[in-house]
Structure formats: C-alpha cells, structure tokens
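Dear Dr. L.,

I hope this message finds you well. Following up on our conversation about the binding site, I have prepared a predicted three-dimensional model of the protein together with S-adenosylmethionine. For your records, I am including the exact sequence and ligand specification that went into the calculation, followed by the structure tokens. Please feel free to forward this to your student if that is useful.
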Amino acid sequence: MRLGWARIAAVVTVVGSMGASGAVAWQLGSRPAERWIETLSRPERVKQLRIDDVIARLRLKPGDLLADIGAGSGAFTLPFARAVAPGGKVYAVEVDQALVDHIADRARTEDVANVTSVLGEFTDPNLPTQDIDLAFFHDVLHHIEDRSGYLKNLSRYIKSEGRIAVIERGHRRPDQREMHMSQEQVTGWMADVGFRLAEEYYLFDGGKWFVVYSRH
Ligand SMILES: C[S@@+](CC[C@H](N)C(=O)[O-])C[C@H]1O[C@@H](n2cnc3c(N)ncnc32)[C@H](O)[C@@H]1O
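The resulting structure of the complex is given below.
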C-alpha cells in the first residue's frame, strides 16, 4: 500500500514526540539518532561496507576535499579522512545535530584532525567551500525527500573536475515506497545538473550499485 503524506505526517508526529523533530524523523527513516549510531556502527555492518575497497576505487589521495553526505556515525568519514591526509579534509554532513556531534567526538577521540562536521539542511549540504573534489553518498540518497533539488544545490559546491559517488540499493521495502529510487532515476537527476555517469563498480552483492558521476 502506498503511504499517503497525511499518514507519513502522523508517523512522523508520533516519532517526533519520542525525541526527534518531525522533519528529522522522516529523513532519518523514523529512528532516533542514538539508535542510528548503534545500528550504523555494528561491526558486522561496517565490515560489509568494504571501506578500503571503496577508497581504492575512488582513488582518494592526500589533499582531496571530500563531502560525506549523510555521514551517519562516521563509518566512512574517518577512513576517508586518513586517506586524504596530509592536506585533505572531509566535511561530514548530517541533518541531525546529535550525529554531527557524534562524528566530531569520534574524530577527536581517534585523533583525526581533518574532519569537519557540518549541520546540513534537508535541501542543501551547507558546505563552507565550493572546491569539493568528491561528494559521497552511501545509503543516503533514498532518505532525501527532494533528491533532484538536493543534487542541484550540491552541484554548486563541487569543483569543475569534481565527482559525485553514489552507493545505493535504492531501498525496496514495499511499505516505504516514498524511499524507492532506481539507478536510472539518479542518472537522470544527475544529467539535469550537468553530471554524467563516469564510473561503475561491481563491488557489492544484493543489488547494491556503486556509481560515480562527473561533468566530463
Ligand atoms: C542509512 S544512514 C547512512 C549513514 C552512512 N552514510 C553510512 O552508510 O554509514 C542515512 C543517513 O542519511 C542522513 N540524512 C538523511 N537525509 C539527509 C539530508 N537531507 N542531508 C544529509 N543527511 C541526511 C540521515 O541522518 C542518516 O544518518
């Protein structure tokens, strides 16, 4: 059954009363931040992310400026930051202040100096630079309500030879049709903002795709 917006609003209101604001709850997939941190940090999940292989495919190098959009608990943020040091930096963008704070704490505890946590807006990552080499989405784009509008805003922060990487399953739960999204749709939204499919990697099983877009 397709959920109507009124029904979603009702769910959001209930979750909102549990702690998160309505809009945040929707974008978080109706889960409070502490539960996200616990879920996203599970060692068995982190192992399946194949972070070192992703870093190798993305050819990250010292000096790169990255934006980890929807960074969650920072699973990619910290290894990315180590890969772009010295001289590089990772902006970890989140829409929930608790996650922004969590990533900043992790970076401090793990002595990683080149991470900046950024509180983004639902429609705009609010990055402090327009020189991003690579913006990265892992398991995030389907959480964003206005994906095409978000990509349009994001494109303004990416330098001319910069790239946008997306790793996604597109979300297939039948009870959450609003989160469904295909690779073809993403390629279409990217084309609207001047990015074309540049690289495609077959790293994951289970219908999870890994694609990289650039302007060239
Ligand atoms: C499934 S988690 C993935 C986290 C991380 N990328 C990972 O794979 O470990 C999705 C994350 O996207 C974030 N998110 C949702 N909408 C967002 C938006 N508009 N801008 C930035 N982050 C967003 C959520 O807060 C959540 O932490």
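In brief: Residues 1-22 have pLDDT under 50 and may be disordered.

With kind regards,
A. P.
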